[in-house]
Description:
Largest sheet: 9 strands, mixed
Helix content: 25-40%
Radius of gyration: 29 Å
Number of helices: 13
Amino acid sequence: MTSQRSKNYQLPSIFLLFLILCISLFLASGQLSAQNQRSGEETKLLKAFHQISSQPLYDWVKELSSEKYQGRLTGTEGFDQAARWVISFLSSWGLQPAGDQGTFLQAFPNPYTLVLDRGEVSLHLPVAAGNKKKSAEIKKYYRYEDEYFPGGTSASGEVTAEVIYVGFGITAPELGYDDYQGVDVRGKIVLMESEVPVSPDKNPETFKKWRPYSFHQYKLQNAAAHGAKGLLYYYGPIVNPNNDYIEGFLYSHVGRSVVDDIFAGSGQTYEETAAAIRKSLKPRSFATGKIFTIKNKTEYHPEGLGYNLLAKVEGQDPVLKDEVIIIGGHLDHVGSCPDLMPGADDNASAVAVMMGVAQAMMKSEVKPKRTVLFAFFGAEEQGVKGSEFYLEHPVFDLNKTIGLINLDGVGSGDRIFVLAGKNFPWLYAPLDRANSSYIHRQLGTNYWSNVARPRLDAARFLDKNIPSLSFSVSGLELPYPTYHNTRDNPSIINPEILEDLARLLFMGVMELATVSPEKLKAEASPAS
């Protein structure tokens, strides 16, 4: 029989156990309540998530790639009409304008050039004229698109002259390098490499010294300053409107077959010559003796006006709504040269995905705490000018811009890649989680040094120290190139990747628009 004293000693223990049990039940109920709240929010988000469908996204790509928008070159009516078409959807869904004077558009000056016909690139070949001891010649005409494209900012006219190979077309006294030393290019056509002889990936510190000479504008200006009348630019052949217009100066983009014909009979090969320049950092310019004709018909518009299309979903938190997450992608493409360059992957695919995310956010019962700005940039193809202008004239305080999620070429393939995810693991992590939880696509990332000339809108933001990621898609293998030519059309678009990426971004950005960056940084592990 238990004594009364023993019973007295047991009472506090029983009370303590009871107290612990109550506390545990209280904490468990709180955790369950939080889980239920999260589950409820997730259910609401997934309801909007599942309304993102591949067919409308693909239809939007087809629409933007159609003839009516003329390739969406910024400054043209085709681009303006495409912007109006996108705005009609955004406004109907309830997004708010964030452009000039209560509109969706932010205007900026943007000269542009129209290419009016296919032009000509031809080689003059001497042939024997029987017993008359006179020489004659025939012309070898190169194939449009496969072997050349007219220069996107070429002047109009015709030039026939000897071709002088000038390497990378650089005059850099401080580097002890001059491709024009020892050759006279006055009145001639120059054959030129793109980029510079130093790699930004292999030698980033050395590259920084060469970087100013990697821009297309510099190369064209330097050729004209040395008296050249024309340029065969070994860049592609692709259509590229990112250059300067110089009255009277003609140029065309050429492929390898043209370069090989110019080197033929010179006693040296192109591969050996280019490799020697890169290895020694010494010019190897020479007069080729080959006579070429460049003929282009163009129309220059110095009065051109471009636009960024800006639409916002305002944050619901009274404090956090002043902070902004930007989902960006360029609306423009390269126009017609003179055939239509549809730009389905580059970058109608991104516009369609952005529209899908915007529509889902407006349908969602859960709204972002921070403001989300959808920025459809103009003039990316003309030198990343639209995003540059936005950063000079931001509609939100750059110090309160959490980051940019940029999309460029996201419709062709089945693998998703994110530039700079390892630079900003806290920004990447919610997107990675969204993929792991809901999408299950192959998703990769890396570091981005951002030392090369800007080729993406994200590069402009990184220059301003704004965390930025840039999404792209790969995996489609074709026997022909599709970059900046007529073959970038809806036939290469994968509707399912559009749907998956829009869903991934919707879930990931909704988390970014709710959780504090400090918490994200604390929780994020280095991206793998």
